[in-house]
């Protein structure tokens, strides 16, 4: 039998309205630490899209004045349970995990003006306004979670083409909303 404490299990669960409260609670803690740099805090990712199933990990995006100053807060964020991962594959980002195997939050920090900020916000808004595509995304995630229960890399690769397609549509859509 596998020891679940040392293995990250990919699980997609039904939408939980408490995710909004969890985001709000955690945002307050993060803002206390990053208040000198933070400009905006957003709930992003699948848990921010009402009604769709998701991995029960709250994604938080903080927009800051100076990304280079964020590393100075690593110790305080570690005291909250966050693990600093640096840019973690996205230039100009600081990424933090809360919990290694039993993860509860992801923290994405970007400097104001970084194109990733608009990309994340557009994705969320687009999915909320296009529930059929949100449901397609939900079904894809459920299928991938079953297929790749112990392989986060394969799970993420399986979503990649769908996300890129939505990112493109969401960007076009956002331009028409202004």
TrEMBL record:
Stored SUPFAM superfamilies: Nucleotidyltransferase (SSF81301)
Pfam families named among the record's database cross-references: GrpB
InterPro entries found in the cross-reference section: GrpB/CoaE, NT_sf
Protein's UniProt name: GrpB family protein
């Amino acid at each position: 039998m596998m020891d679940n404490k040392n293995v990250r299990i990919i699980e997609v669960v039904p939408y939980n309205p408490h995710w909004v409260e969890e985001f709000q609670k955690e945002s307050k803690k993060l803002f206390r630490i990053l208040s000198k740099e933070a400009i905006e805090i957003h709930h992003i990712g699948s848990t921010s899209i009402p009604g769709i199933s998701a991995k029960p990990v709250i994604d938080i995006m903080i927009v800051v004045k100076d990304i280079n100053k964020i590393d100075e807060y690593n110790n305080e964020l570690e005291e909250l349970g966050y693990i600093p991962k640096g840019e973690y594959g996205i230039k100009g980002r600081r990424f933090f995990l809360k919990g290694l195997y039993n993860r509860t939050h992801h923290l994405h920090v970007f400097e104001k003006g970084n194109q990733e900020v608009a990309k994340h916000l557009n994705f969320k808004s687009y999915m909320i306004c296009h529930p059929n595509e949100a449901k397609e995304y939900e079904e894809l995630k459920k299928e991938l979670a079953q297929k790749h229960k112990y392989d986060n890399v394969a799970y993420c690769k399986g979503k990649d083409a769908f996300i890129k397609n939505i990112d493109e549509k969401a960007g076009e859509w956002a331009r028409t909303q202004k």
